[in-house]
C-alpha cells in the first residue's frame, strides 16, 4: 500500500476509487490505503467491497456504473484478478460504445 500511495502522490492524483474483495487481502489493502490517504488529504471518491460471490451473483455492470459516474483519477483494486478483468472488460466495452 505504501508503493501505491507513492504512485498516487507522484501523479498528483487527488481523488481515487478503491475496490477491495471481502477477504483479508482486500480488507487490509483497502483499510491501509484509506489510512494513508486520510493522513495526506487524498479523497477516496468511493470505496467498494466486493462480495465473495461477485462474479457468480453480482454483475460487474453495477461496479462499472460507479466507475463511470466517478470523478476519481485512478481506480485501485485489491481483489482477485478475475474480478479485475471482468470489471475492466465491461468498463472498456461501455467506454467504446459511448458516442464521441
From TrEMBL:
Pfam families: ANF_receptor. It comes from the Eukaryota. The keyword Transmembrane helix applies. The keyword Iron does not apply. Residues 2-96 form the Receptor ligand binding region domain. InterPro entries: ANF_lig-bd_rcpt, GPCR_3_Ca_sens_rcpt-rel, Peripla_BP_I. This is Receptor ligand binding region domain-containing protein. The lineage of its organism: Eukaryota, Metazoa, Chordata, Craniata, Vertebrata.
Amino acid at each position: 500500500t505504501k508503493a501505491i500511495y507513492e504512485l498516487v502522490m507522484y501523479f498528483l492524483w487527488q481523488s481515487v476509487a478503491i475496490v477491495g474483495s471481502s477477504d483479508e487481502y482486500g480488507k487490509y489493502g483497502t483499510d491501509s490505503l484509506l489510512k494513508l490517504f486520510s493522513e495526506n488529504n487524498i479523497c477516496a471518491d468511493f470505496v467498494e467491497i466486493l462480495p465473495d460471490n461477485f462474479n457468480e451473483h453480482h454483475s460487474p455492470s453495477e461496479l462499472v456504473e460507479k466507475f463511470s459516474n466517478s470523478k476519481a483519477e485512478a481506480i485501485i483494486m485489491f481483489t482477485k484478478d478475475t474480478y479485475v478483468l471482468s470489471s475492466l472488460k465491461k468498463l472498456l466495452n461501455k467506454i467504446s460504445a459511448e458516442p464521441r
